[in-house]
Amino acid sequence: MPAPTISPEGTVVMPGPGKDRTADDIVKRLTELRNEFTDVTPERRASDEFKAMIEEVKTLDADLTAVLAIERRDQAKVVATQGVGGQREPRGFNAVVESPEFRAWVDRGCPTPPVPPGKSRSENPGLYVETRAGIDEWGATGPSTTFPNQYDSTGAGMLLPVAQPIAPIPRQAKLYLRDLIPKMTTQVPQIPYVRELAPTESELAASAVAEGNTKPSASPNMQGAIAYVTTLATTMTLSKQLFTDSPALVQYVNIRLPYLVKFKEDWEFLQGSGTYPDIEGILNTPGLQTQAALGAGATYYAQSIGMGFADVELADGAPTAVVLNPTNAWAMFTARAAGGSGTFDAGTPFNALPLTVWGVPSYRTRAKPAGSALVADFQRGAIIADREQVNVAIYSERYAEQNLVLLLCEERVGLLVPRPDLFVEVTLS
Questions:
Q1: Are 281 and 273 in contact (CB under 8 A)?
Q2: CB–CB of 402/279 below 8 Å?
Q3: How far, in Å, CA of 348 to CA of 341, rounded?
């Protein structure tokens, strides 16, 4: 087996795998050698031929480890599986870390291929690693992390294997936009569609026509638009020890990371600027209707929202939901009735209430800016286009020297708003 060498720069360089053999070729040769070892006599065991065979097995084992790592990278390693129509099936961290392939990799010590002669990690940081500690593009301190990569009592970085940490209860708000808007799948990064602006203006284009007279023509206000599919993603780094020794933490991450992506999705659907890579959110879509406040104070919120319902119906829609910031919603629900009786406009707070507004469900989210409400016919006004649903992946090669694992959660999604007039932003005060 070739020995490590020292480069002119003083870097330890490990021998690389044979480039002319695949994993199948190496496994085939190992099988042949295994058959050669059957019924080996003591005389043959002491021969130079047998010692050469042992050295070949060691070389083949090292080559197989590196070749499998390369093939794992080329096949997207442990990225979520590909589903029907080019859509990735949602896959949690539990499914990844419990897979036989991942556990086998952990049992082998999470190996990373060495740097072949003449190569450097900068050419492919996900594949090669120099063996001299502390020499890398991050500097001696390693990559920065936004999550604790150890859980000892002193914070000094030494893992104390006494037990697994108890993860906190995940903080997450309720998400609603996916429940309100119809969904479709797509395989393209840009989706052309048509908006009809102010459709009621052309409704009187038809008229009664006397015999022999020219029939009138309609001129609908049609406008071409493009919905761009964008990537919403976040990453996290954990120590390999935490990741492999702490199933409770893995479960916490399995909930927390996808939620961060989904909350950003709600925010983009509502407030996205439309400047790529941001989605063009509903509140920034041309053609959105607006309704002024009918008075100051929470006692007028319901009245103003009611007039927003009228705007939706005047566009031939049927309001399906009211989206509010929690501050505005609860100011409205807790407003007291006039006259000093002590009752509340929304009814008694001591009974279960549906918390509807004029019989239409209310949805409360921090993704909606305070100061206004969004009322709409969500079923006919917009469409969510899924290119790749929320999925997770695990990467380790780049962070091998620091014993860190990179966790990635992402999705690809777009939003079409073919009827912006079915959305009304109601100013509350």
A1: yes
A2: no
A3: 12
| 137-164 tens-digit pLDDT | 333 344 444 444 444 444 444 334 445 5
Q: Looking at the chain, how many residues does it have? A: 429
The CATH class given to the 80-109+143-198+222-429 domain equals alpha beta
Cα separation, 73 vs 398, whole angstroms:
12
39 contact partners, CB below 8 Å, separation of at least 6: none
To which H or E segment does residue 426 belong? strand 423-427
d(CA 415, CA 387): 11
Q: What's the whole-model pTM score? A: 0.60
Q: How far is CA 97 from CA 78, 80, 107, in A?
A: 9, 12, 12
Phi (first) and psi of residue 365, to 5 degrees: -150, 145
What residues contact 163, with CB distance under 8 A and at least 6 apart?
none
- CA 85 – CA 88 distance, rounded (Å): 9
Tell me the per-residue pLDDT of 3-49, one tens digit each, with 9 for 90 and over. 434 344 443 333 444 445 677 777 787 777 777 766 667 777 778 88
- Mean pLDDT, range 409-416, rounded to an integer: 94
Q: Which residue type occupies 377?
A: D
Beta-carbon contacts of 27 under 8 Å, excluding residues fewer than 6 positions away, are 64
Rounded Cα–Cα distance for residues 352 and 344 (Å)? 14
Q: What digits encode the pLDDT tens for the residues 352-408?
A: 667 889 999 999 999 999 999 999 999 999 999 999 989 888 887 666 677 788 888
Q: Three-state SS for 45?
A: helix
Q: What share of the chain is helix, strand, coil (3-state, %, to 5)?
A: 35, 20, 45
The CA distance from 313 to 290, in Å, is 14
* Chain position carrying tokens 């070949």: 56
Q: What is the pLDDT of residues 317-340, one digit of tens each?
A: 999 999 999 999 999 988 887 665
Contact of 168 with 255, CB cutoff 8 Å: no
More confident residue, 246 or 273: 273
The whole-number pLDDT of residue 135 equals 28
Asked whether the predicted pLDDT for residue 281 surpasses 70, the reply is: yes
